[in-house]
Structures are given as structure tokens and as C-alpha cells.
Task: structure prediction
Amino acid sequence: MRDKNAETMQKYHNDFLREVEANVEEGDWVHMCMQCGVCAGSCPLGDAWEHSPQKIFMMIRAGKREEVLTSDSMWMCTSCYNCIVRCPRELPITHIMHGLANYAHRLGIAPKMNPTRRFAKLFWNNIVKTGRVNELKLSISLYFMDGFTNGVKTSLEMTGMGLGMLKTGRLDAMGLLRSHGIKDKSGLHKALKKAREIEDARKGLS
Amino acid sequence: MAKEYSFYPGCSSERRASASNYMVSVESMCDTLDIKLNEIPDWNCCGASIGYAEGGELPRHVMNARNMALSEEASPGQDIIATCAACWLGTKETSERLRGSDALMADTNEALKEAGLQVKADQEVRHMVEALIEDLGYDELAKPVTKPLEGIKIAGYVGCQTNRPFGIVGESFENPKYLDKLVETVGAEPVEAYDQKVTCCGGALAFSEPDKSQVLIKKIIESAYDHGAEMIVTPCPVCQLNVEVYQGMINKKYNTKFNIPVMYYSQLMAVAYGSSAKEAGLNGNVVRSKKLEEIAAK
Amino acid sequence: MSDEKKTAAYICKGCGLGDRLDCTELTTIAEKEGKAEIVREHEFLCNADGVAMIQKDIDEGANRIIINACSRRAKTEAFNFENVAMTRANLREGVIWSQPDTDDARETTQEMAADYVRMACAEIKFMSIPEENPEHGSNKRLLVVGGGISGMTSAIEAARAGYEVILVEKTGTLGGMAAQLYKRVPDHEDYADPQDTGVPEMIAEIGADGLITVKLDSTITRTSGAPGQFSVDITKESGVTETENVGAIIQASGFTNYDANNLPHLGYGKSPDVVDQAGLEALARAADGGAIKRPSDGKEVTSVAFIQCAGQRSSKKGELSYCSGHCCNTSIKQAMYFKDANPDVDATIIYTDLRTPGNGEDFYRSAQKKRVIFTKGEVSEVTTSGDELEVKFNDLILNEDTAMNADLVVLATGQVPNSGVNIEAATPVSVDEVEAAAEADESRINTEVDTGTVQEVSVLNLTYRQGKDLPHLRHGFSDSHFICFPYETRRTGIYTTGPVRRPMDIAQAKEDATGAALKAIQAIENSSLGRAAHPRSGDLSYPDFRKENCTQCKRCTVECPFGAIDETEDGYPLFNESRCRRCGTCMGACPVRIISFANYSVDTVGAQLKAVDMPDEFDEKPRMLVLACENDAYPAIDMAGMNGKRYSPYVRIVPVRCLGSVNTIWISDAMNSGYDMVMLMGCKHGDDYQCHFVKGSELANIRMSKIGDTLQTLNLEPERVVDYEVAITDIDRIPQLINDAAEIIENIGMNPFKGF
Result:
């Protein structure tokens, strides 16, 4: 596999702001940040990340490419949209965080073991396969994400919850076997493949 | 006169999925209110709030655009209604982005062509609560109430995605009142001082970052108790799931004694409109509400 | 006009006065004790019938009028009679609205009302009818000193209002600092791009205006006189002097750029490629829309760094402690010079707090759109490395020391006011202060000026005994209250505007200069009618002094906040009535009590406080005297009444023009009369003063600090005299202060002088 990351760095001569503007979803808003810090104070997982959105934007301007893209701060986004509605400059901060996470992930330099990154990958593969979420399959793959032993442990911890869901008819015990999903799976797959091609071409990732 | 909408139920509403009871109550609520929902044929997942990471930008929009295209074909001229906050948000976001960018519209249609579809993004994408409040109004929603939920103190937990970034018209992001008003409409008592009504429950990160999310969930429940609520009501399946099913784990971890029912607004309405416990999906709650069940049984 | 006094007292029964008070008793008091020739009750005194009744009496010879009704601040249009002396007993706000309507309170409420009637009757005996000051001048021409944006705007606005203007500029051209700019910060929608300065258009308008005379290469070498009658020497560079007479003066002497040579650590003076904002304007004008070239080698600038707050908002010696307000917008504008000519130039603004007042926020956003980079950081040093400059700074967001290279560095330095000689560096505000300083062997007067540039050249060359220029407030800016009375200075008829008053940009200076022109016109008009200027605008009374008793102590000449009193050659005070603001500070200062106004004097207040019916010690009814400044304290007390706030019925309140007018004799009179406490209520003093006469409340405070000794020699507790700073908003606090006083009296006991 080619090293996409190295190639992109070459292309932008370390001008990371321009790279973000070109390749990251809503990235051309980054230069509009006025560094007030309202986003940092509004994030529900404010205690959990190292770099607030405000800092991430400053780091982008300061050309700290490696630090930004390997940060796990973006992966702490719960998509609560608090930062978006409070930003006085109306930056779509949530989307930029998503965009940075996706970009880092696609470049292959996002933190390998970040649970949200891994869950997100599982999730997307789960929905794309049949067109709809299979909650049981998703849960099982999630629990076994860190190997069989951990998976059993997590499963046991979650048993109470799972049983509750089963009892109330909100989890399908037979979900592994039952046929599931949309009818036109192949149409969806073709459309998504095409979309990926277009996007990768636009962002120099193909 | 029946109101008619194109309907996007979303994955969690499916039979034996995590919000199947939401769907049950929505159906009986809509029956009473004479609302006809035309399900989008062969709809797919919206990508949810976590789809961005692997899915990226265009594929995510294509997922939503496929639903929009199918809706435009099947129910032209109707607004699309979603019951799930994430479905609504994802679809509405795609719709707005498509309308705002010819380039994105062209790319999206190029991809959709592979599935033999074309999107115009000419239908409004709305949450069920929006339709109830804006198209019917609180007065109209109060009319069919036959069993007012008298004396029940309910904390309106609005959460994030029905509230931000789009929100319900006329409401503030910091202190939306519509759930309190709906609670009043069905004859119950809103806990207006409830101060965690827009706190995030962790969303999808309840799975991937359970410890961090449970701190948030604990705050949401604790405040409801502190303000004397006997029940929490929410418009969002993820909020409902997270706030309800982690109570046991939080009790174990923090030595709390949480056991508070978390209902959908549609469940309250269905019961107030005279539906049975089953029709209101009350049997679908892990933490059961005895009070609601008693009223439904009357 | 006949000298014979004929007193008429009117007792209003409206607004509940008739129900709450025994008006028959009040009538008897006015007749028997007050000796009023006419006393009439009326159901509704301020209505047309009531006013006509009073007017009829006046027409028939009544010339001393006592209105016993509402506060003197209410119904001023109804009770507005000419050629009479009038006083008003405040029975409504001051009595029935401040006291509870209960049977228990009825007796003390009536006692209050009765005392206020007595006080008014006593006061009127010492009042005469103010007459227009015979010394007034009526020149209506305006002198504007300084031909920059502020001065040009004042001249244009005054001319548009129909007034003749002489515009004096010390350089050879109009336009001032603004003429040196390539472009200015925008003043209209959509606030996105730099725009032309508009200076040539203003110069053309002035040239075409027949009412404006421009004198270039000229300075003011002498200013004397007073509003309506200033005499000014205007001297050309060649030495030729002309004398002109004007009615009012606007000083728009502007600012000087802070001397960046004080900032060697930022590279100024070490590399020609470090410039200040004025230097950058010169480079931009040379480029005229093309690429800006750096001074050292003429290379086109590809990267530029702007350092905000250079030598300002600093606590370092020799640097400015204040924010000059315009510099953030100016740097944004200058960054746009580069971006608009070539978007590929890197323009970085390094700031600690970006301050973009007004529509500057839109301008800031526009710069972000143009991809000017804004970095929150604190610059420590600028060094040269090869042919580039290195800016070392602490990134305040990332919390790390870092550096960037630039072809050119621009220092955003501040504005230093051209306010002339700091006359107060050497002159104390009061005689007491001189004594206190001598005693303590140290002066509390701060002679250190933090402007970095001490200015020695006078702007106005006033012949006033108080000094050549206008007093400064802080940082060398001329004194004016920036909210309550901007433009006003402590020299009546002389107004300051523009950056000499406070730091400001072009848009603010234009608005400011328009306001100053209006104030100057108001002063001219008031003066031509012999009336006072702000804040007693329209007042005809002026200080009268009995020279034969003067001891030449100089208290009045030193303490007058407005420099209205000069000295004659033989050492007597020389009153310039037209410069007087009628605050009465001289009256309060005079130890031999020879200064008075027709309707306000040591006697008018002294008679009031002595007229109160003083209960003896065993009645257990103490009496507190409040001397309340009529500008803020008295309205606040009225508002307390309006809002139903209750306060002790044992208080008697006398309004004074300013605490500066409080003569200490009133305090000893009050103590001798048996008051248990005297409370002075005036405005906040100090650097952020709210005193409408600038120094009045401060002087009162200094005087009162001395009264403790006097009290002790009388064996009286110092707590019996207190001095409070109050604001017009203190409607809860003032009743509390009054009620607290009642408690203090309970603790220290009644005044032993009662009944003597």
C-alpha cells in the first residue's frame, strides 16, 4: 500500500491549513475561528480530550500536522452540536471535527486503538452490508473487538442490559440468522462505491 | 382532514430493535391524531452520527440522498418525517447541503445513478415533534386527551439532536420548552427547573467510551431526581436507550439507586389518548412505569 | 424692580397631601412662624387653576414664592415663574411618600411636613431674585484649535449650524494624522474593505465654506477672557501675531504617535524593516495599491507580522498603560493592504486581546475571510536573522514559546494626547491639601506622567492663574467625564474633542467633534444671555463677594474647579462670572463667608437648618440633617420616595448645589442647634469621579476630614458628621444609610447641645 500520508505532506509543503481547507469536510472554515474558546467550554467531554476544538484550530494554523491528525481529541466528539450553536463565528465545528477524524483515519494515522474509531468502522461496515443496522451483530462485534476473552467479559458485564432489551422485545436474539436489510443492496453498494471514488479523487486519496 | 407525510422510520424503530416501542406508540398516537405516515419504500440507514469516520462525506450524503430520492418518487410533495433524532438530523443535513451546493448535488446524483435513482432534495425534512407542534399545535394535541396524566412529575429531557443544530422553530438551544409544553398538554406536571435537559448522553460514544458517557448519563438522571421528577420523557431513541438501560451499571459503579422510567413523548400521548399499555409500547420499557400502566389500565 | 419683599406660600392638597397631612396646621405655620403675607391652600396646585392663582398673586406684587407641594424636581414646567425668588417644600416625595400611611406614623409625618414648611419660609427670607450677569460677553464666533479630523469636523458642523469659525492649524496643511494614511478603516456597510480617508473632500468643503477662516502654520500664543468674550493671539510661523475675539473654543489638538524608539526589544531602530503603523502607512502610500516593499532593500514583502499592543497596555515604565482603541482595527486594515494587493502574502496579526469596537467586528471577520492569520500570542522579542526578521512569541492558546519569520514587522503603538502642559503636576487642588502635604512632608499629588512623552509645549497658553492649559485627568488626556459630560473641561467655554480627550479612531473622532461643536454653541448661546453653562445651564445667579471682609486666604481661587477666579494685583480674588459654573465651591471654601449667590448662600441653608423645630432630649425624637447634592443624591432620595422606600421620620433633608458648596459653618450651626447627626451625600470622587463639578465632592471630603478635631474640642463624637458617596441609583442604599444613622444615634446618645 502506498503511504498516502507522506504523499499528501509532500503536496502541501507543510502548509497544513491549506491542506485542511482542501481535504477536510468544512475545513475552509478553520481560518474563521476567532479563538474565543466557547467551543472548549461547551463540549460535554471537555475533561476527556487533550486538545479543544479551539486548540485544534490554532494547531492547524501553526502547522502542527502530525499532532493534529494523531490526536484522539476529535474522536471524543459525541455529535451533540453544542459547539456549533454557540460558536459566535458560526463555524460548523462538529462537522470539522468529524472531517478531521475521517481524514486522519483515511490517511491511516488516526490513533489505532481509539475505541470510537474502531466502533465507527464496525458500524459503517455493519450498515453498508445490508443497508440497515443489525444491532445484535453490531453489539457482538463491538464486544469482541478486543479479542475473545475481553469480549466474553464485556458481554457478561452487558448481560443485564442485553437481557432487559431481549425481554422487552427490543433486541432480536435471532438477528444473527434472520435475513435482514434493504432489498436493493446491490444498488446501494454500487452507489456507495461510486461516491467513495468521487470523494477520493477530489481529496487526492485514490 | 388527515395529514399525510412521507415517513422515514429508521433502523432502531424496526421490529425487535432498540426503539421498537417508540414505533408502536407513534403508530397509536398518529391513529388518534389522524396522521397518515407513508413509509419510504426500501429505506436504508442514515449513517447515524458515527458514520462519518469510515463513511466520509459523500458516501454519507449518498446514503441519505437515496432515501430522499425514494421518498420523492413514492410520496411526491409530502414532507419527510423522521421519528429518530439522528435520522432526522442526518437527512436534513444532507438535504440542506445538497440545496446549498450544486457540486455536491452533481456528485451525489452521479453516485445515485448507479442505483438508478435521482435526488432533487425538494421535500422538507422534519422531526415528528416539529410536525406535531407546527402543523397541529398544542391546543389540537390536547383535544383527544381522555386520560390526563394528572399528578405525574415529568422531566423533559430534550437531549441534543432534536435541539441542535437545527432545533424546533421558536425554541432556544439552551432552554427549549417544547417537551415541558407537551407534558402539560397531556395533563402531567413538567419539571421546569430540570437543568440537564440539553445535556448530551454520550450518544454513540456510550458504546465506545462507556465510562465517560456514564458520567453524563448519571448527571442527567440525578438532576431529574433532584428536581422531584418521577419520570423522564425524551424525543430521541439514543437518549432513551442510554438514559434507561445504563441505570443498573451506574448504580453498581456509583452506588446509586436509580430506577426511573424513561418514556417517549409519544408514549405519554398514547396513554393520555386512551391507548392500552401495549398500544403505548409500555411493555417495551426496561424500567417500567407503574403510574402510566395504571392509567392505561383504567 | 421693587426691593420690597412680599412672600406668598401655597399649600397643595393634591396627590394625597390633603388626606395625609393637617394642612390647616401647615397654613398656620406659614402664616404665624413663616410670616408669609399670603398663604393659600389649593386642591391641585399644579393644574391651570392653581398656577393661575399664583400668577395672579405675582402680578399683584408677590415676589417671594413658597410652593409647599411636591419635590423641586417635579412639575417644573407648571411652577415656572419669572422675576420671583422661589423655593419649594418637598411634602410629597420627601414626606408622605417616604413615610408609612399608618396611625402610628401620623404624628411624626406631620412634624416632618411642618418642619419643611418652616425651612422653606426661613430660606425665602434670604433669597433675592437672580439677575443676569452684567459682565457677560456675546461673541458668537468659534475657535477650533487643530486641523485634523476632529478639528475639521467641528468646524464643518459649527458652520453648518450657522456659526463663524476660525480654524487654526500649526502645520502647513489640514488633515492631521488622517492625511498621512493610505486608507482608513471603513465607516459604512459592509465594513469589509479599507476605504479612502475622505480628507481631501473635507478640506475642499472647508475651503468652500464662507463661514470658516483657516489659519495654517499658526499656533495659539495667548488665550484670555471667558465664554462669549475670549481674546486669542494667533501667531504665524513667521512670528506675525493677530488677536481675535471668539465666544468659545474647541481644542482638537489630537495625538502624537508613541515613540517606538522606546521599544528596542521589538527591533525598532535596529532594523529598518521594523516600522510603526504610521511607518507602514507611508510604505503603503508609496506602493499605492501595488506590492509593498520593505525599507531595507526594497524587496517586495511576502510575509508581514503585526505586533499589537506594542508599548501599550503595559505596566513597564515608559510604556503606555492604556489601550489606544484603534490599533487592532488599524492593523487589520493594514494587513488588508497586503492581502488585497496579493493574497499570497502571509499577513499575521499577533494579539493578546483583539478589540474591534463598533462595526470593527465585521471588519475583523472580513480580514479572516481574506485569510489574514490571527495568532493569540505575546511577543517577547524581534531579532534579525539574515535578511529576515524573527518574531519570538508565546502562543497563548497552545501555551508554548515559538517564533515566526517575517520580511516586515509592524508595531501597533499607541496614541499620546497633545494636551499641553500638565498644570496640575505642580498645582494642588486645595489649600488644605497644601497644608496636609507640608505636614506629612510628602505630596499625594502624582507628578509622574505615564505617557512616555512629557509635553512641555502649551496648546492654548491660557492667561488663567491656574495654568496655561486644560487640566488633565489620567495618562495626560484632558479631563472630561466620558459618560455624563463628555467634551466639558474644567475651563468653561473651552471644549476638547478627539484623541486629546481619549484615544479614538476616525469614526469616533467625527462623532465626538460634532458633539463638541454643539456643546460650544450651547455655551456661546448661554453666555450671550448671561446664564451658566452645563450643568446648571440656564442659571442666572452668579457669585457675589464682599471684598471688604476678604482675608486673601486664596481658598476660593485655588479651589474653584473651573479656574473662574483669578487674582487681582493686590491679592484679592477676581471673579470671572462668565467662567463660573455656579457650583458654590468658593462659597463652601470661604472661611469668612463672604461669597454668596442671589438665591443660594450661607444664610439660605443656615436659616433652613435652624428653622427646624428641635425636640428636646427627653422627647426621644432625634434629628438628622442631610445635606444632599441636588445632582444625584437628592434625585435618588426623591426616587426612593416614589418607589415607596421608607426612611426615618427624624431626618431633615436640605438640597445643596454641590457638596463643594457646603460651608463648615453649617455643620457647627447644626451641632449647636441640637441635630444629633449631619450626613453629607454627594457624588463619587477620585479619578473616576461622578461629581458634576469635578472636584466639589472631593473638596468636601477633604474639608470634612478636618472637622473631627473641631467636634472633639466640643466634646462631640466624630461619628456625628459623616460623608457618603452616593450614586443616583442608590434608591435602596440611601434610606438604609438614613436608618443606620438613627441606630448610630441610639448608640452614641443624643446631642448634648439640644435645648441650649
The two ends of chain B are 30 Å apart (CA to CA). Chain B touches chain A through 69 residues (CB under 8 Å).
